[in-house]
Amino acid sequence: MTENERKLNGLLEQLHDDYVDASVGMSERVARDVAKTRLQVVELIEEYANKDDTISRSRVNTLLRDLEAIEREIRTVAETSLAGAMKDSVEIGYANALTAFHKTLGLSADFVLTARVAESLVLPTLTGKAPSPSNLAEYLAHRTGPDGLILSDRVWQLAGEQRAEMGNVLRRGIIRGDSTSKMVCDIRTVYENEAWKARRLALTEANTAYRTAIGYTAEKSKFVSALRLVPGVHHSEKCVAKAGEDRHGLGAGIFLPSDSDIYSIHPNCTAYTQFILTEEVR
Ligand SMILES: [Zn+2]
Predict the structure, then answer these.
(1) Mind listing the pLDDT tens digit for each residue in 153-178?
(2) For the chain, percent helix, then strand, then coil, each to nearest 5?
(3) CA 122 to ligand 1 centroid distance, Å
(4) What is the pLDDT averaged over residues 142-155?
(5) What distance in angstroms lies between residue 65's CA and the mean position of ligand 1's atoms?
(6) Distance CA 269, CA 35 (A)
(7) Among 11, 85, 193, 197, which one has the highest count of C-beta atoms within 10 angstroms of its own C-beta?
């Protein structure tokens, strides 16, 4: 690493550390937004309550059908909240990359953001559009991941699993003749047990958005020739293996911005990328 690269990447690392903290906050916010839908389940239970605070067995199927509306609400809330976290992450990613250039090399890389996307391998479907945080978040939401799913599939999965759990708990409670306050309590437990899924999804998508924004800046900046992948704080096996790969004969862990697989290596990944500078600014 040259002196310039050391300075630049030192600052990028520091800024990335701050971002990781911020992304934890974002994932908590998404989980909290999903958790708010619990009140609707409580209302539903109260609606169905008899005078003795139980729910008639004959109404179990209607109540379970009514959970569909709550599942839809979870989806809507989660998708909106995730989109916000991704957009915020792109904004921070861009800001961090531009700050690093500016503070350590005195270079302005703003041109990356002011030009419309042209022939980008990082953002292939955004050609002709502005590389704005919302467009980038939108692109990521519609892109098929390595698991063959798009973001809304993952959200539907999460909402569907949560509804199934709630259905099990309520069906059991009603058949047993539990009080509605017991069922409200059990629903709270379901929400607590499921919350990690929303947090994980948010953390994964937000960090991917951050890395993609940095990657796009690298692709379009005339100061960057390649990226060095730094594994995340958990040093997960997949991350470490990827960072040991010498894909282009440029050295272990050196990738091109178009290698978009390095932006989403595994769930909860906190890897980031450093910049290898071009000759003129090395
Ligand atoms: Zn990782």
Answers:
(1) 999 999 999 999 999 999 999 999 99
(2) 70, 5, 25
(3) 19
(4) 91
(5) 40
(6) 24
(7) 85
pLDDT the model gives residue 233 = 87
Is residue 48 a contact partner of residue 59, using CB atoms and an 8 Å limit? yes
CA of 233 to the centre of ligand 1 (A): 7
The owner of tokens 């939108």 is 138
Give the single-character DSSP code of 135: H
Residue 271 and residue 17 in contact, taking contact as beta carbons nearer than 8 Å: no
**Measured between alpha carbons, how far is 150 from 205 in angstroms, rounded to an integer?**
11
Cα of first residue to Cα of last residue in the chain, in angstroms, is: 9
Indicate yes or no: pTM above 0.90: yes
Q: Is 50 exposed, middle or buried (0-12, 13-18, 19+ CB in 10 A)?
A: exposed
**CB-CB contact of 69 with 63 (8 Å):** no
Tokens 């047990």 identify what position?
193
Residue type, 20: V
SS3 228: strand
3-state SS assignment for residue 164: helix
Count of beta carbons in the 10 Å neighbourhood of residue 269: 23
Distance, CA of 121 to CA of 261 (rounded, Å): 12
- Tokens 């059990």 belong to which residue? 186
Dig out the tokens for 38 from the structure.
């619990």
DSSP 8-state secondary structure symbol assigned to residue 93: H
Closest by CA position to 213, among listed 103, 100, 105: 100
Backbone angles phi, psi at 260, to 5 degrees: -70, -10
